[in-house]
Amino acid sequence: MSLPKAFATPEDYFEACFDFFTKYKFILDGPNTDILINKTLNNIDIPDLQCLDVYDENFTLNGFKNIEYFKDFCTALENLSVLYGDVEERTNNIELEAPVGPKKKYEVITLAKEVEDICYIYGCDTVIDVGSGLGYLDQMFYEATGYNVLGLECNLSHYARAVDRQMKYHESSLENVVYIHHRVTKNSGEDISQYLRDYFRNHGAVCITGLHSCGDLAVEGMSLFLKMEDVRTLILMPCCYHKMERKGNRFVNFPLSSALKEVFDRRNGEELIGVPFMRLAAHPTQNDRSLEQMVFSLMSRAVLQLYAFTHKCTVSRNRRKAVKVRKCDTFEDYIAQAATTGFTLIPNTPIYGSIPVSAEDEQHERINNFDLDKLRHIWRSYPEVYFKKAAIYILMQNYMQPVVENFLLYDRLLYLKEMGVEVCEHKKFFNEGQSPRCIALTAAKETK
């Protein structure tokens, strides 16, 4: 159930969410890289913050109810929170033999078992895997059940590797596991039905699943579930909400339910709910780094962003992990990586050659258009209490994440109910420590 116990109706819940999100808008309406540009941390006003040991491993916001700022935040948060209960550990008799890490292995084994169970309950003998990737889930599910699996993948490289893996390691599955290079949309129903007729002529009821239904893919899967007559069940793990398609200043597939649409339009939701909001909904709250390390990473990157902003430049990453923060003990370590291999400064107005340097700055230490002396000056200009505000900011984001995600997911659940689907719920399948994206949408059509 995704409606918190404090609320009698979805409308009351959505209104309360908007009140809460509006009050703490500064947490939601900008990228973390811009917190110094936007002076975001100035919104955190806590008396005697310099006296609090925010880096103590036992420090929590709800442990200081005598501080009004924390009390108001935690009380509102508690009313909006949903408890999903403990995760039932699942095992599978089939071992996943693939070069994947423990997280991926745990996810594949767990979801395969959940799909097996829902197929058994509702009599499905065929599975459609939307966003099938390299096919790990499909092969494990087939080996456990012998059921048909249609894997649909839009990434040509992933599709080709899945086919290659099948030919090398799973040749016995060729008649029952079929991969198609196909981008799933809400209009894919006819094509998918044809694939099923072509490859699994005598198939029965169908289950739609997806381990990482990125961006709009989960909503497209819901649409296919509603439209396709043969599809009886649905079990999707949504992720990467910030990658959902936008038109203008609104998301195409949010909100979905009539209840939220009415509140959203009346409250000018597009002014509050943008990409940063959706990014927070997908944000992992558990991290093996200390809070102090996360503050260092946040502030270091924000200093780079502020420097670029004041010099009318854009910061561009040179690689996925631009800076190996775990190897940085000091800001000097950070900028040594950032200015050399990590980032590139790109002027907002095209120029030829290097960025012009004033006579006053001529003697400054520079690497690839980064003025290291100015970066050091910005870093040192922020007092220790500002870093503590950054710690509070991180904690507030972590506390808000489940509420933000539930707000999004409940809209989807409510939409299914509005469309006449009575059997639907969000269920926690994974332990957060092992997989941060742990909530699945399950649904089933009642058999006649």
TrEMBL record:
It comes from the Eukaryota. InterPro entries: Methyltranfer_dom, METTL25, SAM-dependent_MTases_sf. Residues 103-246 form the Methyltransferase domain. PANTHER family: CGI-41 METHYLTRANSFERASE (PTHR12496), METHYLTRANSFERASE DOMAIN-CONTAINING PROTEIN (PTHR12496:SF0). This is Methyltransferase domain-containing protein. It comes from Loxostege sticticalis (Beet webworm moth).
